Amino acid sequence: MSSKKTLQSSLKRRTFLKAMGLGAGSLMLPSLARSDEPLITPPKRVVFMMSELGWNPFDFRMKPAGAPDSVLHRSMAHPDYANQPDDLSWEIDLTRTAKEDYSKTLEPLHAVKEYATVLDGLGMLSIGLDGLGDAHAKGWVHALSGHPSGEYITGQKAKGGAASIDLRIARFLREQNPNLTDLTALHFYINDAWWGGGVSGFHHFFHDKTETGQIVKHPTEANPQRVFERLFPGGMLDPESVEARGNRKILETLGARYDSLFPNLSSRDRQRLDLHRQTIADIKRRIEVLGASQCAVPDAPINVNGMPGDVAYQQNIDTFFDLATTAFSCDLTRVIGIEFRNSGAIQTSPMGYNSNGENFHEYYSHSMKMYTHWRPQGANATEEEYNKFQIAAPVLGNKNRFHVSQAVRLAEKLRSIPEGDGNMLDNTLIMVADELTTGSHTHDQWPVVLIGGFGGSIRPGRYIRYPRVNPAPSINRFGRSSPFVGVPHNQLLISICQGMGMPIDDLGVKSVTGRFSGLGVKEISLTGPLPGFV
Fold first, then answer.
1. 513: closest CA among 523, 504, 503, 505?
2. Which residue stretches of 262-382 are H helix?
3. pLDDT level of residue 9 (50, 70, 90 thresholds)
4. Does residue 449 form part of some domain?
5. Range of the domain at 24
6. What is the pTM assigned to this prediction?
7. Any idea what the Cα angle at residue 112 is, between residues 106 and 114, rounded to 5°?
8. Same domain, 206 and 220
9. I need a surface site. Which of 63, 145, 198, 242 has the fewest CB within 10 A?
10. Would you say residue 428 has pLDDT above 70?
């Protein structure tokens, strides 16, 4: 995938029309327009890299230099601190921290330390408002929406009650700039084969709002060839070539015919024809703009079917990262969602561990109960629980480190591309997160890794530890390991939306009720930006 080709492919007219979706029986195309105005300021972009089945907090967390280990024990289910609030907070300057002083999970971040932001102490507190679905389903729904589920799928699973912020951001950007298109957001499903994706299965991070107000799962794409063809249908044409001039003439003729038909149509047919007419104008603009750009197209994706699973998985990651980088470089896309499948081949060499035939979800993820770590210190855990934890903990840690390392690889690709006075990573934010804190169904102390300068909307180079002093929402709804919880993750999502220009202060819910014996009831605000984000 290292070699590139410029945008000067040649097509026959029939092939061109077919690729553009203008052949027989076709009336509607994805619009692929770009602004023909030069960019004065590089656009901001955001990538959501989402995994599943939890973290190993013992391998994730970092403490200030010289601080005792007990400062971390407070948020790690240690029996001495289990029922106490934790008001400690701190920042660590990652740019001045030696590589060997990074935690095991975060050590790959040292390569991009000046762009890294680590958030320790958030909680998906909006889940306290949600009575639908099990802990996994709630995490998948709330991670990117901060909003209660909409309805059951089954007795254990539910679907979103609001659009996730990736698609809210994309819709906002298109409203602000009509030259942006449905390619403003792309969603990938990374697997060890060219299958999966779509909207199948219960677990799904990305939700959209239809014109009728219904919340639906937004499909992901597991086949990079289809993403390639969507980004560059029919290849690109040199705007001065004979073929390009001929094809533009075809488009102009079609546009003139549509204009002549328009006055004689019903309102419904006018709407349909107007969409098609706009598509024609979009394609013309795209040929002119992209054909004259310096944007490079990757080679066609390598089909991984038949490869060993671990090799295929890494190849798909590389291919999707190349496509993401190209989509950003060409300004076709501003928002990318990536969902990592966490089973099959990725339990072998890419992550550095093997499942030994055990079910990852049931054996490893569910065994990540933090309190069992403290059995020698008096925690109420069985020997069997303790032994399973000892096996599961490094497996979860390797999984987390793998995902962080992949985010770093994407960040380094973006950093290598000059843009404005700096590089593309200066204007991008990559978010790495999961649907759970630990696989034992907790949602508090939710780890988040961010990479990128985000156009000045974040102050990177820091590890930020937030206090855990809010009384927890109902345990029947909100999974937690202590009656005290951290800062609402809604504030992170709001900060990202605001960084992309959205004038919002909430995600549709404004507070959640926390309760603790002796402290009474506390309304915890879910509004406003995250403290310390900028």
1. 523
2. 267-291, 309-329
3. very low
4. yes
5. 1-30+240-291
6. 0.84
7. 105
8. yes
9. 242
10. yes
